[in-house]
Amino acid sequence: MKEKLLSLKEEAVKLLEDANTVEELDAIRVKYLGKKGELTKILKDMGRLSKEEKPAVGKVANEVREFLTDTISSEKERIYNSMMKEKIEKETIDVTLPGKNTKVGKKHPISRMIDEVSEIFIGMGFSIAEGPEVETVENNFDALNSPQDHPSRDMSDTFYFSEDVLLRTQTSPVQIRAMKEAVKNDGLPLKILVPGRCFRADTPDATHSPMFHQIELLVVGKDITMTEFKGTMNTFVEKLFGKDTKTKFRPHNFPFTEPSAEVDVTCFKCGGEGCPVCKGEGWIEILGSGMVHPNVLRNCGIDPDEYSGFAAGMGVERLAMLKYEIDDIRLLFENDIRFLDQF
Fold this sequence. Notes:
alpha+beta; 9 strands
């Protein structure tokens, strides 16, 4: 039996010398050291040996098993090292070659403006509210006290899916949803900021786009007056355009606010002296606003004798065009890297 073990060892050594892959080594290990391997078969016959022969044969068997195990392990390591060396040589990088420049993206002017305005109002205790871009006529017009004959309801001004469903023309429907939800969940007072996309059937030109962005704000609570509204607007304007910026409130007419006002600011370019940016007037209109109309509060289930509020809405593109002196709104949507790189 010793002869069989030594012969098995010599046979395995020859196979190991010819093995060049890990798979071949594994096959040799299974053939000789596996549960049904050659060495295992020989060891099963040890029961036929005498007590005197067993120790000597067992010793040789253990030596053969240990030799084969160690040899296979060392051969595997050799093959692994050889493969790794070959891989490293193939993947060597020539550091003398010029590198590839990685172009780092930047925030789009619209995104920058939304983030900047949002940060200002969040600092004043506002929370962000969002809503669907596909809206009902009820939320987009009716609940906002918009008359049936208002021009904005015309098919030529609004994208309709049906008589009752449309692409929202403003972010104001989110205010309606927020007020109704607040009434349902006893969530008053309310203080929200609503950024988002809006859609109107405008022919694209230097100042109009069928898709644009708005940011609206809404405050509803007890004893909210025009004083709080003006204080909020003044703080916002100073943080956005600078501490020396002044505001002017001009009477206006919106169906969802009463009283209503357009808010102008002194031109941040010339300080109010007159320049091409403000068309020589010294003032720039930035948003429409006013106290929430009692009918709007009623439409949302809020008692206007107990609660009041104010709302304002501004075009993000308009703010960006004013602040960054962009003269054509279409530049904001053309994705021209040469234009965007300036910001």
